[in-house]
Amino acid sequence: MSDTEPDEPTGRFLPKLAGDARKRALADPGPTWRQYFFFSFAKVWTVLGFFVLDSFILLTWAIPFNPVGMVLSLIAAFYAEFLLFEYLWHRPAEPIRGHQRKEFRRTWFRPVPYGRWTAEADDAKAGRPVPTTLVDDTPNPDEFL
Questions:
Q1: Angle 124-129-130 (CA atoms, 0-180°, nearest 5)?
Q2: For the chain, which residues make up each domain, given as ranges?
Q3: Rounded to an integer, what distance in angstroms lies between the CA atom of residue 91 and that of residue 120?
Q4: Is the Cα dihedral 111, 91, 29, 45 positive or negative?
Q5: What is this structure's pTM?
Q6: N or C end of the chain: which has fewer CB within 10 A?
Q7: CA 90 – CA 28 distance, rounded (Å)
Q8: Dihedral of the CA atoms 13, 14, 16, 18 (nearest 10)?
Q9: 2-56, pLDDT tens digit by residue?
Q10: What letter does residue 141 receive in the DSSP assignment?
Q11: Quick check: 91 and 118 in contact, CB under 8 A?
Q12: Residue 143 DSSP label
């Protein structure tokens, strides 16, 4: 396309919105950059960092071949990576309803009730109540029959 053609795009990444679409977009702009970084972006790079670390451990024990040291080091690294991932991004697998809520108890696999970089942790830090359900439209098993 040349610069003189009438069908030339305006050079914007997104089309210009007008009317109700613009009002809706301004009312709900989506997640902030901080939320995007902690809730989505950092997960991918953390997992990539875990892969690099595991590869380094594997190659370190492969040169002077020591399978026992390799296996023990990888088990320790996998466990430490799992705990770090749980500490940062753990979210309960099932919806937690108010009548099912129990006092949280630390275990070897669940160091925190919800991860530090999750929406629930942001609510708790801000003093807002943590939602009792993670998914609003899940059926309550007590309501059947």
A1: 65
A2: 31-93+102-128
A3: 8
A4: positive
A5: 0.65
A6: C
A7: 26
A8: -170
A9: 444 444 555 567 677 778 888 887 788 788 888 888 888 899 999 999 999 999 9
A10: G
A11: yes
A12: G
